[in-house]
Every structure is written in C-alpha cells, then in structure tokens.
Amino acid sequence: MTPIITYFLNAEDNVIRNGYNHELTYFKNLRFENQTVDTFLLEYVYVVCNSGVSAKCAKTICDRVMGAIRSGRPDWAEEIPRVPWKRVAITEAVKHQNLWFQMVRESSDKIETIRSFPSLGGEALGYHLARNLGIDCVKPDRHLKALAKRFGFATPLAMCLEIQKVFPGERLGVIDYILWRYCEMYGSEV
User: Fold this and answer.
1) Tens-digit pLDDT profile for residues 69-78
2) Which of 18, 27, 47, 162 is a plausible cystine mate for 129, CB 3.0–4.6 Å?
C-alpha cells in the first residue's frame, strides 16, 4: 500500500470516529442535479464567508447572513462581514442568484462558469463552491496543496486521482472532503 493510500484510510477512519459520518454521508450523496436556487445561494454565501476563516466560524456567519436574507430584512447586507470583496460577492450573488444558477445548470463547463462569478476565480473558492454543490472536483485549498506536496504529487487533483484508482467507486469530492476534514481536525502535517 502506498503512503497516500495509508494516509487516506487513516483519515477516513478518523473522520468517522470523530463523529463526522453524517457529513461524509452527505458528500457521498451530494449531486448537482438535486440543487436548487436556494441551495446555490446558501453554498455561495458559505464559501465566500469561509475564505480566511474556519469552517465553524463560516457556518455561524453564513447562518446569520442567510437568516437575514430569508427573513426579507431590508438591512440583510449588514450581516455580511465587513470585508469589501465579501460584501460585493454576496450582494451580487443575492441579486443574480436565479440567473447564475441557471447559467451553471446549462453550462457544459460548470466549474469555469462558477469561477466567472465575482471573487470565485481564484485558485480554491470556485472549486469549493462546485464541490459543495455536488460537482465532482477537488478543491485546491491550503490543506490539500500541502498534502499533495508532502506525498510528491504535482497537484491536489493528481493526488486524489491516485486515491481514486484504488477506490474507483469513490467520487473526487468525497476524497477531497475526507482529506480536508482530517486536516481541519489535525493539520496537514499529521
């Protein structure tokens, strides 16, 4: 067994033992075809809020922003973090959510369409949203980049494809999630 496969199996075991089986099951069942405009907006807001902060902090902020949006509060934008690019990205997403969701649904290259939206063209955010919407891809975030480098892969995608060869039924987004969650718990040096 190669070192990355051993690492992956340990990561999956730890994710499950630490109570994240519900998230793992969620990602295993996640499919873009089942998304709605509302889930698109929710995930867009979450991904933008998650940039630069922990997943736990992002969820708290996202819940507050989405609660204000869904309640119809005219001052909902006050809940957006006071980071200029985040304010622009979320405000534009609320304004264009129906159009943008339709664009992604109709696109032959969903990831590139997502990456064309405000603030999602960088290295990881567009892939993060795509993965969270059930589009099977790998998010090249700091954890996965560190792991890829550590195990001698050129990219996180190359690393996840190598794992997928051993587990051909596993989606890339699930492999990504397992590695990310493990690193989120213990760091990418473990």
Assistant:
1) 999 999 999 9
2) 47
